[in-house]
From TrEMBL:
Organism of derivation: Sorangium cellulosum
Residue stretches making up the CAAX prenyl protease 2/Lysostaphin resistance protein A-like domain: 364-449
Keyword Transmembrane: yes
InterPro entries reported in the protein's UniProt record: ABC2_TM, Rce1/LyrA-like_dom
Name of this chain's protein: Sodium ABC transporter permease
Length: 512
């Protein structure tokens, strides 16, 4: 209007330019639709077979014939579950192959996806199909005929479909909140694989949580198939099916212990996220006492199990305590000098862990209490108490090995898995030989306490070790000798007196 050139008032132009690589663009497109399609197809792959092998057999009158056959109920549920799972797995495999070929043929010059992405996608569908197969099989057995089975499974089918479908939204991605959500965790993990953003820690968390949910579904299915009244078309309350009744002493079953671990782990994970804004010291105290110790004690007391038989609250022998003392002083060096030498964690992880252990500069006694003493009590009562007590009927090797594996997985880091698993084996052996949780708690406290002391005081003689260097072979060998002496002392130890219904065959009390 005043003779100014056109566009004079525009200081600069904003020109949108997509700088993402073609592979990332393709991954974003495929990642928004692949998880939903594959999981929905896997759902359908187990939906109808589960109904046919349960409600369908009732309708045809063959369930009664099967129950009269000279086979155990566990064999029946195993056969039916494997049939449903294999069908669901083959459905998933067929869809992965079909979609990969379709993508490669549609726009071969643009949609270039590494074949390993599709292979990993299929591997991630394994725990999902396990969950679907076990859950649908357990729910369908309550139906009286095929039509009733479809109606019974729809309330479970629709929420699972919704969890898979929301991954198409751009805002839904792999993070600490979604990594523990059933079905959704695998869906967003597949999405992250196609985009190329799958952090190792969240990958480990998602796989761990998926395995937990699959195990819970399997335990539920096995529990349902133990009820012959349900298999024959009768009605039972959920309380009766799940065995939610108060006991008069004794120790829990393996199913109860594993279900308890899974529940505690989910509580620990989401509870830790809720208190993430608090200081590290508060987080550690609340997570140990509130998410490990309190649920353990509540489950034992609420279901009426014997605290002595379940938690191993027995007076150990002197040899047992001496062996735990030697192992607590040396196991950290023996394990660290061997396991970490072959599988060293990244340096940033070591530095962050060292800073985390010191709790942001808290006084030494506070750090020692929260990092050494509190986990020794809370974690041992859960893993060498409640979990071990339920597994010991399967034999000491199973009880020690599985409780150690769960102990390693519970720490939520792939880099800490082998060291904590190795320590868990030693702690489980102490529980087995002494019949008490106290030597393991002593061993655990000494192990953590020595690590805290080295990090806190940083003596010049071990400055390199504190900064992440590997232990010399001489130190590792000396620690191994001391650890061997501790193991020999534990081997010669035994419970002071067996409880009612126990025998000394393996040095471990047995519940009813």
């Amino acid at each position: 209007a005043r003779g100014l050139p056109e566009g004079f008032s525009i200081a600069y132009d904003v020109v949108p330019r997509d700088v993402a690589e073609d592979s990332r663009k393709v991954g974003q497109i495929l990642g928004s639709m692949m998880p939903m399609m594959l999981i929905l197809m896997s759902l359908l792959g187990s939906f109808l077979p589960a109904i046919d092998l349960t409600a369908g057999e009732k309708e045809r009158g063959t369930m009664q014939t099967l129950l009269c056959a000279p086979v155990r109920s566990i064999e029946i549920i195993s056969g039916k579950f494997l049939a449903v799972w294999i069908i669901s797995l083959l459905t998933a495999l067929g869809n992965v192959v079909s979609l990969s070929l379709t993508v490669s043929r549609m726009l071969p010059d643009v949609m270039v996806v590494d074949p390993w992405i599709f292979a990993l996608t299929f591997a991630l569908l394994v725990p999902v199909t396990l969950l679907f197969s076990a859950l649908f099989l357990a729910l369908a057995v309550f139906a009286k005929d095929f039509k009733d089975g479809q109606n019974a499974l729809m309330p479970a089918y629709l929420p699972l479909s919704l969890l898979a479908g929301i991954t198409a939204l751009p805002v839904v991605e792999l993070n600490p909140w979604t990594a523990y959500a059933p079905v959704l965790n695998i869906a967003v993990l597949i999405k992250a694989l196609f985009v190329g953003e799958a952090p190792v820690d969240l990958l480990f968390t998602a796989l761990l949580s998926s395995a937990l949910y699959a195990c819970l579904a399997l335990l539920f299915a096995a529990r349902v198939f133990e009820r012959e009244n349900v298999l024959l078309g009768g009605q039972e309350s959920a309380r009766a099916v799940l065995g939610l009744r108060r006991r008069a002493g004794g120790a829990p079953s393996a199913g109860f212990s594993l279900a308890a671990f899974a529940g505690v782990q989910v509580l620990f994970f989401y509870g830790s996220l809720l208190i993430a804004r608090a200081s590290v010291a508060v987080q550690l105290a609340v997570s140990q006492v509130g998410f490990f110790l309190a649920p353990t004690l509540a489950l034992v007391a609420g279901f009426g199990y014997s605290p002595r038989a379940t938690l191993g609250l027995r007076r150990p022998s002197v040899r047992g305590l001496a062996g735990a003392l030697l192992l607590g002083a040396s196991a950290w060096a023996a394990i660290g000098g061997t396991v970490l030498r072959w599988f060293p964690p990244p340096e940033p992880f070591v530095r962050e862990l060292g800073e985390l252990v010191l709790l942001g500069g808290q006084p030494y006694l506070v750090v020692l209490l929260l990092v050494a003493v509190t986990p020794a009590v809370c974690e041992e009562l859960l893993f060498r108490g409640l979990v071990y007590a339920g597994l010991r009927r399967a034999g000491p090797a199973v009880a020690i090995g599985v409780s150690a594996l769960l102990f390693g997985l519970a720490h939520g880091s792939v880099y800490r898995l082998l060291p904590t698993l190795s320590l868990g084996l030693v702690l489980g052996y102490a529980r087995h030989r002494t019949g008490s949780v106290l030597p393991g708690a002593l061993l655990h406290a000494l192990n953590n306490g020595l690590a805290v002391s080295l990090l806190y005081f940083k003596p010049p003689s071990v400055q390199g070790i504190v900064e992440g260097e590997l232990l010399p072979w001489s130190v590792t060998a000396a620690a191994a000798v001391v650890s061997l002496a501790g193991l020999l002392l534990l081997r010669s130890a035994s419970p002071r007196a067996p409880e009612e219904g126990e025998h000394r065959g393996d040095g471990e009390p047995r519940g009813p």
